[in-house]
Amino acid sequence: MESKREKFSSGLTVFLATLSSAVGLGNIWMFPYVTGKNGGAAFIIIYLICVVLVGMPVLISEFIIGRGTRKNVYGAISTITNKKKFKSIGVIAILATYSLLFFYTVVVGWVYSYVFKALVGSFKGVTLEQASNIFNTTSAGAISSIIWQFIAVAVGGAILVLGVKGGIEKLTKTLMPVLVILLVVCAFTSLTLPGSMEGVKFLIKPDFSKVHIGVVLSALGLAFFKLSVGTGTMITYGSYYTDDNNLIATASKVAISDTIVSLLAGLAIFPAVFSFGMEPSSGPGLLFNTVPLIFSKMPGGWILSIIFFLLTSMAATMAMISLLEVLIVFFNEELKIERKKAVIINIIIITIIGSLAALSGNPNGVLGNKLIFGKTFFDLFDLLVSKVFLPVNGFLIILLVGYFANKKFVNDQLTNNGTLNNEKIANALIFIMKYIAPVLIVVVFLKSFI
Ligand code: PHE
């Protein structure tokens, strides 16, 4: 029943697989629109601080828990502690994973549908108005949005049935660099548009006068979302790590590469946003309204737009797979449900509940005006994830590793049983884990709710 646990095959695969979970819609879709909503440069600075002082320490903590126990998120936590309040980490992780998937798969569906739109040439010579119409018909249509979401989940499930190695490793190896090159091309084109310098200013000239605690909470939530922590994803991936992998180095490389991709996406999108006179704070449609316009201004834009949406959909798919993997391994190891069955059950759950998000991703959608606590379902799942589940779980995880887990266990994981000779870095990290990261999370969290 329980399938034999696999391991990633090499250090490079560990890095690429982890990166493929981190890089996704968070960089290309969410980072630009959340930055736009929160005023630009000042938000980015706060975000970077959150990544270094909170995101990375939590990421490394998840690796420690995962590799140290080689279990699914729930099993891993139970192995490390029997304190009730920490056992909730596993439960929150599963809830967070579902809530995240409910809306993430909607956007993955939008991106898939944009691949086809690019293919048939829908973006050729589009105007601002046409681009926004295309986005509206994509995201507000009742049947189309549900079907695209279903296709997204089903594709993820199908890849997973092939197993950890076959599924994840092959896809990751070659695609990332091509996506980065395309983002650079987009950024260059975007920068040559008239009036684009306003967009650059927006990205590099901080205006701290508009920063309030809500902005900081958004930055913290985005840092967690970006690094895929708080959902148990990195515990699960950590459980496949090789014994000789340097956890701190891997986390640093992943965080740096991931941040570069986000910044490139910002540099591709904001100059165009300002050049076309669009609202930087216009929300989740930002990517879909701008990118077709950028490509329509480029020689060879048609082919490049196809490649861009294809690669974005692949990056999004791999991030989605890393979330599904959390659930499948949990079903397999804790509920003793075989992999294939677990995949099918989860495809059904996500499509049914996720359809609430699919129908409300656009304010003109069927459920676009059905509000709960003043939020659409789509926004509610997003808010629950980014502002509640991830920060709370990040806090519990770092507390567990910093204070309650066996010290030798933590040290052995950080130094690979003393073979790495990195005691100084490890000690500095433990200091941040104990005294800086948890304090920051608590202050931001409490301040924004009280
Ligand atoms: N980090 C992914 C992205 O940026 C999203 C994600 C979050 C994936 C949490 C797994 C877990 O798209």
From TrEMBL:
Cited CDD domains: SLC6sbd_Tyt1-Like
Membrane-topology descriptor: Multi-pass membrane protein
Transmembrane regions listed in the UniProt entry: 40-65, 86-112, 142-162, 174-193, 213-238, 259-278, 302-331, 343-360, 380-404, 425-446
Keywords: Membrane, Transmembrane, Transmembrane helix, Transport
GO cellular component term, pick one: membrane
Localization: Membrane
Claim: Membrane is one of the keywords in the record: yes
InterPro entries: Na/ntran_symport, SNS_sf, YocR/YhdH-like
Superkingdom to which the source organism belongs: Bacteria
Keyword hit for Transmembrane helix: yes
PANTHER family: TRANSPORTER
Protein name: Neurotransmitter:Na+ symporter, NSS family
Species, as recorded: Clostridium uliginosum
